[in-house]
Amino acid sequence: MSGLGHLLEREGFATVLIGLVPQHVQAMKPPRALLVPFELGRPLGEPGNPEAQRAVLSSALQLLDQPGPGPIVESFVAASVTKGVGSTPVEETWACPVSFPAVADEGLSARVQQEISLLMPWFERSVEQRKHTATGVSGMTIEEVATWLTLLLESSESASTSAEQPLAMTFKLAIEDLKAFYLEAATAQPGGSATDLSSWFWRQTAGGEFIWSLREVLKGFEGDEQLRIYAAFTSVPEAEVQRRKQLSIE
């Protein structure tokens, strides 16, 4: 899209790009770009929040007032937008349907397996309600996903994969399966926004901590460049990466 932006600009059309991965935008240097702190696949933020989505679009369109050729890159600061009916705000509270016991002596992998076991009834209920699931793309059961990722965390060379699928792709799909399992289980309890679910997963579960640990270990892995890229740039949302950086500074 950055290349297309340059092409259109040369033909006299002003362009603006909404970017989710800062490293990509910085490398491609589009004429104008708005960096947003949302998850991949959601450049306008959480679904069902048109006020916030309009704020993103408004910020992006304002960049068109700046002359080219650029690159002009600005960051969007997500603001809290109150949902309501008419002028009366509606406050919704959400809680995960499962309370995870604090287990200080268990390792991270064991805690993930425990969470999977506790969430399984809620995941099955969610699938029954929705009539579909986004899990299964790795070709493994969710228990097998957790076991395989544990092997990858402990020794990336010991985590075997099929000859038809590269290690990096298996990692990417396994991560997607694990995240989808947790989030689908959590949606069995209605009322939570995408922001609620994301905050819960990354900040309150062993599953989120597990993926973060994988990212930290594998982002410096030199044996597989694609695996390193997936770990560094797609395993954890950029907003969560920036949040942890800010907390470490403070």
Annotation keywords:
mainly alpha, two-stranded antiparallel sheet, single chain, 250 residues, 52% helix, 6% strand, three-stranded parallel sheet
Structure description:
This protein has helices at residues 2-10, 22-28, 50-62, 108-130, 142-154, 167-186, 194-204, 206-218, 225-233, 238-249; strands at 17-19, 32-35, 72-75, 84-85, 88-89. With 250 residues, it is mainly alpha-helical. It has two domains: 2-85, no CATH class; 108-249. It has a three-stranded parallel β-sheet with strand order 1-2-3, with helices on one face. α4 (108-130) packs across α6 (167-186), α7 crosses α8 (206-218) and α8 packs across α9 (225-233). The longest helix is centred in the middle third of the chain and has 23 residues, at 108-130.
Summarize the structure.
The protein is built from ten helices and five strands, in the order H-E-H-E-H-E-E-E-H-H-H-H-H-H-H. The protein is mainly alpha-helical and 250 residues long.
Count of strand segments = 5
Q: Please indicate the percent range of residues in DSSP E strands (runs of 2 or more).
A: 5-15%
Low-confidence stretches: 80-91
Rg estimate, integer Å: 20 Å
Give the helix/strand class. mainly alpha
Major beta sheet, specifics?
3 strands, parallel
SSE order and pairing:
Blueprint: H1 2-10, E1 17-19, H2 22-28, E2 32-35, H3 50-62, E3 72-75, E4 84-85, E5 88-89, H4 108-130, H5 142-154, H6 167-186, H7 194-204, H8 206-218, H9 225-233, H10 238-249
Parallel strand pairs: 1-2, 2-3
Antiparallel strand pairs: 4-5
Helix pairs in contact: 4-5, 4-6, 4-8, 5-6, 6-9, 7-8, 8-9
